[in-house]
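step=encode ok
step=design start
structure_in=
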């Protein structure tokens, strides 16, 4: 994501503001029961200029008319009590519209009633988005939006969007804001498997065990997937007859198995912009459903692989492990020919999370990407937390070349890895850096890539490389290498040399 340090912009209020006693009466977009999570979508309305907090953000700010909205008046949401949520962002109707304004939010902690300082959100400006010619972009569901911010358990919110002049300075004659501005409040819900994330200092590898509370009730499912033993017999992007491997058991998520892979085997041409997602398996099952595994254990490299340089597969928490609701995403999967580049990102969701909260963070980002931004699924292929835990992101199979929505113009033949947090100035943990190295060494090794090398990708269009440009990129690149953005943050970007060197050593180079 475009980097923006989600830091305090104002001074914390010294007194609690009075809040309405009733919840917002406007309908939410697919708000669900607390246990399943949901999204409250509140319209941003023009605000008066003289209320508390300034800039039209006060309780007393009167809503202005449509003319004020068109002229670029400050828009926002006055302080209010809302249903519980943990992640907040702002979206608007047109994904191509640029938000020339300053977006700020503050939230009320549910446990204490204390209000946070004002914190800023930055517009994505398509930096993280599906490629323009992809089926995901042609669905008509995409919206513009900001980076979301993880705020933890909250029950009150206030927001303001103050227009800016063309120069970026606040002006008395501000630019117009995009239409359809809405504040998105995401409740991640509560799902089993949320304790699979390990806190810093917790045992890893064989010494780590999953608590019984992580297991679903009823029959205990398999909790680990054995490593593939013959990587040279199946295409990473196809199952039998070109179908997704999950079609062999319609009730099983494709991430629950690791089929043998052969990254360079021929497949349908994914460069064809008219290509459709591979079909989802039928809902008819020949037998009882098999629960998906909650994690893939660390496994040694397969010495019989077709490529001479391979690395162990690191432990990966699957989508089932972090509680992904598979009914949210679009059916089917998009695959590309191979994986040539791993783009490293930071999520800019802030660093105020514990690793035990990460399954909730993942569910929140997933819901924001799908319901709020209009993407088909979680944008990144993988995520890494500050304790070094690795999470499966976009559905389709961790060994496969799954097309994501992470680096506009270069989503084909690449993968996106997001380190959870904001790393513009804060250094990423050594555990996170090592986890990125382990993940890239393994996944790039499946496709015969040298983590210390360079390669070429053809741009589908962006602000750094025009459509059709053949760009020379490092095999492990930062988001900023393919798009003019500050992502993955200066502090994380400076660690990519360490990632490349460690990944190459893990491959035996």
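sequence_out=
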């Amino acid at each position: 994501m475009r980097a923006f340090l989600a830091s305090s912009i104002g001074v914390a209020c010294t007194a609690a503001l009075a809040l309405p006693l009733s919840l917002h009466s406007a309908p939410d977009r697919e708000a669900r029961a607390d246990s399943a999570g949901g999204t409250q979508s509140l319209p941003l309305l023009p605000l008066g200029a003289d209320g508390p907090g300034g800039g039209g953000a006060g309780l007393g700010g009167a809503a202005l008319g449509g003319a004020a909205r068109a002229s670029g008046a400050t828009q926002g949401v006055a302080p209010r009590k809302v249903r519980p949520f943990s992640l907040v962002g702002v979206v608007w109707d047109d994904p191509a519209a640029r938000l020339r304004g300053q977006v700020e939010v503050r939230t009320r902690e549910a446990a204490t009633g204390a209000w946070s300082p004002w914190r800023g959100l930055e517009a994505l400006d398509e930096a993280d988005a599906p490629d323009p010619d992809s089926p995901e972009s042609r669905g008509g569901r995409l919206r513009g939006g900001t980076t979301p911010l993880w705020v933890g358990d909250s029950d009150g919110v206030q927001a303001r969007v103050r227009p800016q002049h063309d120069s970026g300075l606040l002006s008395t004659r501000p630019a117009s804001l995009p239409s359809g501005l809405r504040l998105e409040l995401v409740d991640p819900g509560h799902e089993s498997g949320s304790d699979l994330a390990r806190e810093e200092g917790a045992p890893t590898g064989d010494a780590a065990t999953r608590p019984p509370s992580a297991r679903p009730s009823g029959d205990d499912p398999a909790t680990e997937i054995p490593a593939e033993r013959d990587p040279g017999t199946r295409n990473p992007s196809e199952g039998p007859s070109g179908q997704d491997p999950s079609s062999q058991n319609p009730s099983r998520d494709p991430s629950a198995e690791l089929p043998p892979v052969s990254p360079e085997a021929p497949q349908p041409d994914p460069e064809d912009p008219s290509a459709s997602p591979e079909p989802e398996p039928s809902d008819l099952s020949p037998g009882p459903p098999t629960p998906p595994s909650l994690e893939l254990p660390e496994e040694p490299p397969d010495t019989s692989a077709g490529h001479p340089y391979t690395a162990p597969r690191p432990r990966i928490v699957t989508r089932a492990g972090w509680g992904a609701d598979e009914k949210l995403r679009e059916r089917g999967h998009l695959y590309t020919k191979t994986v040539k580049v791993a783009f490293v990102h930071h999520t800019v969701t802030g660093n105020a999370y514990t690793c035990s909260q990460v399954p909730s963070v993942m569910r929140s980002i997933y819901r924001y990407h799908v319901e709020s931004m209009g993407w088909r699924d979680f944008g990144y292929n993988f995520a890494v937390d500050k304790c070094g835990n690795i999470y499966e992101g976009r559905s389709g199979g961790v060994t496969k070349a799954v097309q994501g929505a992470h680096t506009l113009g270069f989503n084909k033949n690449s993968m996106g890895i997001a380190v959870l947090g904001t790393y513009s100035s804060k250094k990423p943990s050594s555990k996170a850096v090592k986890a990125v190295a382990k993940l890239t060494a393994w996944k790039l090794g499946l496709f015969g890539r040298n983590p210390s090398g360079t390669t070429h990708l053809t741009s589908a269009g962006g602000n750094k490389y025009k459509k059709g440009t053949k760009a020379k990129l490092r095999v492990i690149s930062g988001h900023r290498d393919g798009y003019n953005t500050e992502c993955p943050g200066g502090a994380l970007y400076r660690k990519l040399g360490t990632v490349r060197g460690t990944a190459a050593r893990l491959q035996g180079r």
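step=design ok
step=annotate ok -> The radius of gyration is 23 Å.
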